[in-house]
Design brief:
The strands form four sheets. The chain has a five-stranded mixed beta sheet with strand order 4-3-5-14-6, with helices on one face. The protein has a five-stranded mixed beta sheet with strand order 11-8-12-7-13. The protein has a two-stranded antiparallel sheet with strand order 1-2. The chain contains nine helices and 14 strands. Helix content is 40%, strand content 25%. The radius of gyration is 23 Å and the shape is elongated. The chain has three domains: 3-82, Winged helix-like DNA-binding domain superfamily/Winged helix DNA-binding domain (Arc Repressor Mutant, subunit A, Orthogonal Bundle); 93-162 and 266-292, D-Maltodextrin-Binding Protein, domain 2; 164-263, D-Maltodextrin-Binding Protein, domain 2 (3-Layer(aba) Sandwich). By secondary structure, it is of the alpha/beta class. Helix 1 (3-16) crosses helix 3 (30-44) and helix 1 (3-16) crosses helix 4. Strand 1 (49-51) and strand 2 form a beta hairpin. The chain has helices spanning 3-16, 19-26, 30-44, 60-82, 101-118, 170-176, 223-231, 241-250, 279-292, and strands spanning 49-51, 56-58, 93-99, 122-128, 142-147, 155-162, 164-168, 190-193, 200-205, 208-213, 218-220, 236-240, 254-256, 265-271.
């Protein structure tokens, strides 16, 4: 039995605490995951996991084996990345990326498809999620994040500015009126992002700055959910321009208070270290910088 795959199966079970979740992630049956973990225990001649009907936990030997297996898998990944560019000058191997669900939907999916068309021997695995991931622990090569202050422990390469815009459907605005001043927002149904500006929206025009306390009957932790709510007439939403501008152009959404400035952030490509940056990651970084130059949205 392939010991490399067995190590990966063991590490995934140990970190997730679930044979079923590991089976889904590794695209194999639960029984095969069990056999790989059993093969690891037979190979090392010790029990690595304590199994009950409710949970899975590591033994003392399992904790030691987990650290060693993670180190080994990282070394193997580094080797694959360092040798990914072969003599025929083609990028090979697999890259692991992460970004928010909304940015994956708005920009990264198309960007990845176009990049892979140029490098057909390369594979990319994208983790679209809202939470911050440990890039080293999850073996993520590149994180694309919209932020005012990126993680200082990571290397950050700016890709583009991300402006915000207030949008609503024409139906909602016909029924409730178009706000003429930021203070009008307090009388509207507002759709807010749960982790950013949920209660207070900041707007600026010249020297005038206004902080508006908004009422949000519906908030969410993910931008595409709020965008959809705005499209169907749920209210006024504070949204990232790269996501909603196509819907503003098509008429499904209407921008309001466009002569007022909203807070803007930067889109960063983040990675753990320059030291072991593979040829494939460097190529993707250069491609994203060029693609997002001039803010195409």
């Amino acid at each position: 039995m392939d010991r490399f795959i067995a190590m990966r199966a063991f590490v995934e079970v140990a970190t997730s605490g679930s044979f079923s979740a590991t089976a889904d992630k590794l695209n194999m049956s639960r029984g095969m995951v069990t056999r790989y973990v059993g093969a690891m225990e037979q190979w090392l001649d010790t029990r690595l996991l304590q199994r009950t009907t409710r949970n899975v936990s590591l033994t003392d030997a399992g904790e030691q084996a987990l650290r060693r297996c993670q180190q080994t898998l990282t070394l193997v990944q580094d080797l694959e990345e360092e040798t990914a560019k072969t003599i025929d000058d083609e990028l090979r191997g697999q890259l692991r990326l992460t970004c928010s669900v909304s940015f994956a939907y708005a920009q990264m999916s198309a960007a990845i498809v176009d990049f892979l068309a140029k490098h057909p021997r390369l594979k990319i695995d994208l983790d679209a999620s809202e939470g911050a991931l440990n890039l080293v622990e999850k073996r993520i090569d590149l994180a694309i994040r919209v932020s005012a202050e990126p993680d200082p422990m990571l290397i950050g390469r700016p890709l583009a500015r991300c402006d915000s815009v207030l949008v609503a459907s024409s139906g909602y605005l016909a029924k409730h009126g178009v706000p003429q001043h930021p203070s009008d927002l307090s009388r509207h149904q507002c759709l807010s992002y749960a982790n950013f500006g949920k209660s207070i929206w900041q707007l600026k025009q010249g020297e005038e700055e206004v902080n508006v306390a908004v009422t949000s009957a519906f908030s969410a932790n993910e931008a595409t959910t709020l965008m959809r709510a705005a499209i169907v007439g749920g209210g006024i939403a504070l949204q990232p321009a790269p996501l909603v501008n196509p819907y503003v152009k098509s008429g499904e959404l209407q921008a309001v208070l466009t002569d007022w400035e909203l807070p803007s952030m930067m889109i960063y490509a983040l990675y753990p270290s320059r030291k072991h940056l593979s040829t494939a990651v460097r190529a993707l970084l250069d491609y994203l910088v060029e693609r997002f130059a001039g803010e195409p949205w």
